[in-house]
Design a protein that fits this description.
alpha+beta, five-stranded antiparallel beta sheet, four-stranded antiparallel beta sheet
Length: 160
């Protein structure tokens, strides 16, 4: 059975949502509002890390969360940024082709807008309470140049 690109992308988003809802053993005190977030652009592949690439191996706890749902053997972090939300919308440039806008809609909901090559592609919402409990928000899709690879934008609460 062949699945068209649009349906496959929507399936990715459904699976990404399941990853976000997956249980976590992290114990973080509940807070009314998340103000500090970590955003990561991640590449998933069965291939090896290219020698000229500056990406780094993904940390083991996050790799395990992704491996529970996604098929790739290797996950590499392309970029990482921290953001503090204080009522305004923040725009993060994750790569030359990927940007995200993030804002708190209210005390319980985070809104993330994904932009690919300057064009809005998707908006997702995530529970701030779930993020505070150690869950992650994931937006994922196929890599354009290699359908066997994928990219992920992952939001989490840093545990400093």
């Amino acid at each position: 059975m062949r699945i068209n690109g649009s349906l496959r992308f929507n399936l990715w988003l459904l699976v990404a949502g399941l990853v976000a809802m997956a249980g976590s053993t992290a114990s973080v005190a509940d807070a009314a509002v998340v103000t500090k977030l970590k955003a990561q652009l991640i590449w998933g592949t069965d291939g090896e890390k290219p020698s000229e690439n500056t990406c780094k191996e993904l940390n083991e706890p996050l790799k395990k969360k992704l491996c529970r749902v996604f098929k790739w053997k290797n996950y590499f972090e392309i970029s990482q940024q921290s953001v503090v939300l204080a009522g305004e919308t923040k725009r993060l440039k994750m790569s030359a082709k990927c940007e995200v806008e993030v804002r708190s809609l209210d005390d319980s909901t985070l809104e993330i807008k994904l932009f690919g090559e300057g064009k809005w592609t998707k908006t997702v919402r995530q529970s701030l309470k779930a993020l505070n409990k150690g869950e992650i928000a994931v937006i994922a899709g196929d890599a354009k140049d290699n359908i066997n690879d994928a990219w992920f934008v992952v939001f989490s609460v840093p545990h400093d």
